[in-house]
Amino acid sequence: MTATLPDARGHFGQFGGRFVPEALMAALEQLEREYEAAKADPAFSAELTHLHATYSGRPSILTDAKRFAEHCGGARILLKREDLNHTGSHKINNVLGQALLTKRMGKTRVIAETGAGQHGVASATAAALLGLECVVYMGEEDTKRQALNVARMRMLGATVVPVTSGSKTLKDAVNEAMRDWVANVDNTHYLLGTVAGPHPFPMMVRDFHRVIGLEAREQTLSLTGRLPDAVVACIGGGSNAIGIFHPFLDDTDVRLIGFEAGGDGVETGRHAACIGGGLTGVFQGSRSYLMQDAEGQTIESHSISAGLDYPGVGPEHAYLNEIGRAEYRAITDKEAMDAFLVLCRTEGIIPAIESAHALAGAIKIGKELGPEAVLLVNLSGRGDKDVATAAAYFEEVGMA
Amino acid sequence: MSLLHAAFERAAAENRAALIAYIPAGFPTVEKCYDLVRAIVDGGADIVEIGWPYSDPLMDGPIIQQAAEMALHNGAHATDVLNTVSVVGDAGAVPLVMSYWNLIERYGVEAFAHDLKAAGGVGVITPDLTPEEAGPWMAATDSDEIDRIFLVAPSSTDQRLNIVTDATTGFVYAASLMGVTGTRASVSSHAAELVARTREVTSLPIAVGLGVSTPAQAAEVAQYADGVIVGSAYVKAVLDADSHEEAVIAVRSLSAALAQGVRRS
Fold it and tell me: What is the ipTM of this complex?
């Protein structure tokens, strides 16, 4: 049922589609054709699987987080360890797929947007591996906040372009990447980093991340002999969440729960919770929920997590929310940072602040469901990149 | 006959292309924009596109981005767009709106077509809406007799040229190049070819925009197109002026020079 979407025009119910300049339509149609052909080509799948096994480190393991579980009402907590992938997050799954596709299309250059820098680093990595030119657009504010990742991208051979338009953050980096793509579409692929944007990106990026959920479903079955009661993930654009949710869509007894960035609290207006606090609209290529004012102007989002600090969300999540198949809730900065520290000190794992939103969600859901419950939690990235942000936060609030 | 159609007919009868100017509403302020619009029309523009400033203008280059940011910063709202449309009509030119899709959708598709009609507007250019996603918009514009102007681009396949021109009324907007708005040193070599390919599938007038900014470029485009669209050059003239009075003079002069340019010799 739901697992067969999108339809031929990229719609998930009323969401998704293609809202782009005509100049990009031919490129999107080409991308869709080439992706469908690649998907049907065993050689393409074999090459990607080979890279997973010999380069990025798949399958990622499942960790039974027993000491962390004590903070979750005693529910059993299984962490899907995407943080152990090469480059430190789930992002590598998508970039390897799209980079292979770029070669297949005969294009020689990739462009990418990045917020915290994780997708930029992953893109630069895949480009280096496959011999592609790589240009990464990054809001000027973010280049300052994430100087380490800027240095990593440059070391990997990518050109990092600071974006000075608009709010100088992730959404403006997407705008700038789109402008580059329109002008250079003959030789350039836009390696979009999340399940947003025009069709076929939400479908294609999801498919490249489904490996997370496929592995985790089998691993959970083999470890516990049953399916989890709930699958928990953080949501910015929503790529790690859709990756782990999607293989469970038809397991209707399994609750799928996404945790958006609540920032200072959804009621304050300073947040990035599009589903919980946004309105339906069209933004950066597709219809979904977004943070906008009464006249449709985009509102700036706020989150301590740069990777979740985006005023839009993928259209498939909007759809899953609308039909009630997945639930979406908000986690404040404080709740996320509390969970961040709990994981550090109970399991010896420093999570990405993005993933800490999922961990905070697991603490809530575990308490709600009780000690018999099994929760599968996507630990989408590691926290090395966030050490400075976290240290500053804990110093400010007088913790740690 | 629609006002838009009449404007193209009149230009053709005078052996010239129609001059289509673009200026964002509320730029640099709502009131000052009214003065600019009157000067642009006074200088000789046949049609004026009023841009609806948007927070995420992904088809626009740095010049128009800056103008949109200024307009939003100075408090431009939907009602200002409609009021500026009325100023265009009162000044004697044909008013259009150019808007990214989310703004119209948030306003309400039917309500916008209706209110635009009431303000004297005759058409809307939607740079990020393709016919495939335009179902409700087609119905609303049909019902209020608003022209809906879609774009063709050098990358449009023949199949897409058919889809786009079938859905379009008023005139076809031919984006001359693969890129965003802005001034360029020369007119794209793709423009003439795109117009020729588009003519094979439609009898609608065809206007060329993107990267046309000087009278010489306007003259070149007027040789093969029915309309010449100039946007960034107007905005730049305002940004470069030292005072509002100078800006008004500058856009009037630009219109006058471009109006000479679009005459076919």
Answer: 0.96
